[in-house]
Amino acid sequence: MKIEQVLPIQPKIEISNFEEAATGCDLGITHFLITSDGEKIENPRYLNRSLKHLASLQKQLSKKKKGSKNFAKAKRKVAKLHLKITNQRKDFLHKISRQLVNENQVIVLEDLNVKGMVKNKKLARHISDVSWSTFKTFLSYKCGWEGKYLILVDRFFPSSKQCGGCGEKNVMLTLSERIWACSSCGQEHDRDINAAKNIKKEGLRLLQEELATA
Ligand SMILES: [Zn+2]
After folding, report:
1. Which of 133, 169, 170, 187 is deepest in the core (most CB within 10 A)?
2. 190 is catalytic
3. Distance from the CA of 211 to the center of ligand 1, in angstroms?
4. Ligand 1 centroid from CA 138, angstroms
5. For residue 44, what are the contacts with CB-CB under 8 A and spacing of at least 6?
6. pLDDT at residue 195 greater than cutoff 70
7. What is the largest CA-CA distance in the chain?
8. 123 pLDDT band (50/70/90 cuts)?
9. Is the predicted pLDDT of residue 72 greater than 80, yes or no?
10. Which protein residues have a CB closer than 5 Å to ligand 1 (ion)?
């Protein structure tokens, strides 16, 4: 676990109610972000459109003869769209990180192993991975400016399989099960929101531990 201490321009905010002050975030592919408050933020449509367009441009490029004029032309088109997507992404990530920092004093995020992930060859996946690491950076300095906490929870923390109600582990839970009921306490869970709640809980536990020893 790491508590980000980037640019501590402002002294850290005093927290009276940890439960209310914090939000946990689960990052995904279908949804960009799911919060412990039950909010699901989708990747914006214009981005998906651009990604489809990019895939088709790359296919066209792959058919051109290397070194030819048409190859150079197609390559330029791909680069131009890449830049557009990067900018659209950044706008989106700034907006979401700003909203989270405005609404919370503590933000808990899964610490994703981005280095390992960007090697993934699938385009959509690749773009998501890059976004996540940029998102973390944006959150990190926005929190730093305002004396808020960004807490990174180890990504091997079993956030999806643990019941957010009673803590029982559902070892049988498969990836395709989006909604499940805890066999121990009976509580029904949306898989992603439950994961976000567990991330929040773990982050708050770690923060309180840290504050107690500081
Ligand atoms: Zn339970």
Report:
1. 170
2. no
3. 29
4. 35
5. 88, 92
6. yes
7. 66
8. low
9. yes
10. 163, 165-166, 168, 182, 184-185
